[in-house]
Write a structure and sequence with these properties.
single chain, alpha+beta, PH-domain like, 4-stranded antiparallel sheet, 7 strands, 32% strand
Length: 134
C-alpha cells in the first residue's frame, strides 16, 4: 500500500547566500580564495540530504551526508510544537515528544508548516488506537 506523505519544504537560502559571498571573495582575491567554495557546497549537500515528511500517523526525519540517519516519530506522542521564522521567511520547528526534543531546521514558511502539522497531530491524538495517556 502506497502511503501519501506530505514533504516539508526546506529553504535554500544559506546555499545561495554563501555561494554569492564565495563568488565575491574569489573575484576580490583574483581566484586565490577558491577554497571558500567549499562552504556553499557543504550547505548544498547538507540540505539536499535532509528530508522532513509526514502522513496521518508519523513524522519522518532523514538527514546525513556520510551517515544516513532516520527518525520516526508517531504523531500522537508529540507533546508540543513551536515554530520560529526569520525575516527571510524560513526558520525551524521545535518538536517535543515524550522522550526528546527535535529541531526541523531550515524550514521554509515554518509557521505555516507547523499549522499543517498541528492539524495532523490533533487528528492523530484523537485516532490514537493505543489510547496512551499523555
Amino acid at each position: 500500500m502506497k502511503e501519501n506523505y506530505y514533504y516539508i519544504k526546506i529553504s535554500k537560502f544559506w546555499t545561495i547566500f554563501w555561494l554569492v559571498i564565495s563568488i565575491l571573495i574569489i573575484l576580490g582575491t583574483e581566484g586565490k580564495g577558491f577554497l571558500i567554495i567549499i562552504i556553499p557546497a557543504y550547505y548544498y549537500d547538507l540540505l539536499k540530504n535532509c528530508k522532513y515528511y509526514y502522513n496521518d500517523d508519523k513524522l519522518m526525519i532523514e538527514f546525513g551526508i556520510f551517515n544516513k540517519n532516520q527518525f520516526i516519530i508517531p504523531l500522537y506522542r508529540i507533546i508540543n510544537l513551536t515554530a520560529n521564522d526569520n525575516i527571510f521567511n524560513f526558520g525551524y520547528i521545535r518538536i517535543v515528544d515524550k522522550g526528546q526534543t527535535i529541531l526541523l531546521k531550515y524550514v521554509k514558511n515554518s509557521r505555516d508548516e507547523m499549522n499543517k502539522l498541528i492539524g495532523k497531530w490533533e487528528k492523530a491524538k484523537i485516532d490514537n488506537v493505543r489510547n496512551e495517556v499523555i
